[in-house]
């Protein structure tokens, strides 16, 4: 199968979030399954030619190779992409984002013809690539080259939709007839993701539960009606985890390597983490870890509401991340009040993140909504028991056999779950079983890639 992956960010070239991880890892897993894959993304200022060994295809396109033979093509345009930030800078979103990504989508379809890569599937990601399915069904509707091409649109977070003023519609080079309720019109504005959801042959999200949630008013962000209309074409596939990076047996960032069969290093990593974070080195106190963006979506509203009561329990808490200033201030105050309970680290620190996953007993992830989530998967890999709210990918990966789940999104629901986990911790037999089940969980990209291939086949 010939597959074109189209995304606005791809690891290791450009990244702002989980989309880049998926767009970088999935092609490699598909190649291992014997598929012919290429990747197309914009060439941003940060993509240095020398660093990645880029070669010129033509004045508008450069390329390199990853994996065994995956060509990665970069759409070049200094006016649109040679600037700071992928989507915006410190002043906010770039004001010409509609124009920028419309150019990327048109250039992508032109490139495929130029390199004579006749795709079976064009796999588009999020609103930035959502014009591709639209152009396929309009501008390229009668183009023999694309006669057999089908499109899949993956929605990583439906909260990001690409909404722009009606006056910018001509920049899309589409007929005005598409600016209506059955097309890209959304309360008098342009909604690019809405158009993609309507025109793509198939749609998927990054977990089965999230695929159902976005059809509801609570989680659909205004597009639940569109998704209900296309219910039979909406699927959910969990993101995978790169087990080469997240592997306690080989992880260079942790103090002691360990495995499911030889996990004595787990306790040693806990002691090392406590020492590094200036917490008392107590084996019998459950150590909770958080690696997260400090935002309401991630559950910090209910955590902040109950944090004082939580810190009075017999626990320790290590927090790593940055985010909304209000949560910075609340947590800074708490860390000063409970220095033997809370270690607060308001920064990005990849080595410390690995150490928290390896050294914590329990990983706290009370997200209000979570399309997929990788933190809980990483925690499971390291035998750190996840404590999560029952939503999205968290509900699909964590259950009573390998973690703790609460289903009442409130301060009291969170505190009750923390108390339940803390009460279970001293039961060494139960805890050992939990750790083994956690570490034996398999969320590899190999599994996800096979499910994507099944989904691609449905689009034929």
Structure summary:
It contains 17 helices and 20 strands.
Notes on the protein architecture:
The structure is a single chain. The protein has 460 residues and is of the alpha/beta class. The protein folds into 2 domains: 2-240 and 446-458, Glycogen Phosphorylase B (Rossmann fold, 3-Layer(aba) Sandwich); 265-442, Glycogen Phosphorylase B (Rossmann fold). Helix content is 37%, strand content 18%. The strands form 4 sheets. A 9-stranded mixed β-sheet has the order 3-4-5-2-1-8-9-13-14, sandwiched between helices. The chain has a 6-stranded parallel β-sheet with strand order 17-16-15-18-19-20, with helices on both faces. Helix 1 links the parallel strand 1 and strand 2. The longest helix has 18 residues, at 97-114. It is globular, with a radius of gyration of 23 Å. The model has no long low-confidence stretch (mean pLDDT 96).
Helicity range: 25-40%
Give the structural class: alpha/beta
What order do the strands of the largest sheet run in, or round the barrel if closed?
3-4-5-2-1-8-9-13-14
> Which descriptor suits the 3D outline?
globular
Q: What's the helix count?
A: 17
Q: Largest sheet, described in full? A: 9 strands, mixed
